């Protein structure tokens, strides 16, 4: 038999640089649960939902559960300054509408997602899956998830 | 003369693991400009300031420019839902007040700051310097700064 040269099982975990580890980090492993509302929900109810679920961004879907828009804490604050009657304004009037929504897929790297967030100056992206007639919302990834991932890099290395 | 053993200048940058690099990352190198308001500013004007400066958090100071509180987009949204007369409510009524404010110093590591943010579930910290009678606000560090730092780890390594 040919002598086995090269790698042997040492009983230790393989040494891997943090940089290599980062490239392997995919969105699927660092995601949060998405909070989804329908287009005709009022701005008032959207704000309640935001506080109830304690998130910074709500994803808006149509009757077929396909992504039509995104509404952020900032959008909701802008709409609510010094105004009453928020229960009469449907959320689709103030949301950022498709195709202007930045999204990602669960197999995307965390690095590409972090880049998207920095480039578009947003704090949260919907994680979607393509369907025949649009995009279904499967998850949510935020700068909080990125911060947690950043911390996990050090914890994994016991620095 | 004694022969020089050990390290020689190779003309290359020293090879350093990303994990080592992370421990060296201090807040001073990843901070943003703080946006500061006074305690008697109205909630209405605070919201305007928030949009004007495009930040998520405002730091509140007293007459001596010392930190007395913090007010976030979330606090401002909670106060403004379905209400008028926001110009009559001073911001000190709704802010998170010292000593309940989480802060950091410019020589703190980015890792310790990321941990603080995750533990206290906040997106932004004031960077302060101790004065005789309190804390002066010198900067701001946010999850956006952490996300930028996360990206810089990969860019430095050309992965």
From TrEMBL, chains A, B:
- UniProt keywords, alphabetically: CBS domain, Repeat
- Keyword hit for Cytoplasm: no
Question: Taking every annotated instance into account, which residue ranges of this chain make up the domain CBS?
Answer: 30-88, 95-159
Does the keyword field hold Repeat?
A: yes
Q: What is this protein called?
A: Transcriptional repressor CcpN
Part of the whole protein covered: 54 to 212 of 212
């Amino acid at each position: 038999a040919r002598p086995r040269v090269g790698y042997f099982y040492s009983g230790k975990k393989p040494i891997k640089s943090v940089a290599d580890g980062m490239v392997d980090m995919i969105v699927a492993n660092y995601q949060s649960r998405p909070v989804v509302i329908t287009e005709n929900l009022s701005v008032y109810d959207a704000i309640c939902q935001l506080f109830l679920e304690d998130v910074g961004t709500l994803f808006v879907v149509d009757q077929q559960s396909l992504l039509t828009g995104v509404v952020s804490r900032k959008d909701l604050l802008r709409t609510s300054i010094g105004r009453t009657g928020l229960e009469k304004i449907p959320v689709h009037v103030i949301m950022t509408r498709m195709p202007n929504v930045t999204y990602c897929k669960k197999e995307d790297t965390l690095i590409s997602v972090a880049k998207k967030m920095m480039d578009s100056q947003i704090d949260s992206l919907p994680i979607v899956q393509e369907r025949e007639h649009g995009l279904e919302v499967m998850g949510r990834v935020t700068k909080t998830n990125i911060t947690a991932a950043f911390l996990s890099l050090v914890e994994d290395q016991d620095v």
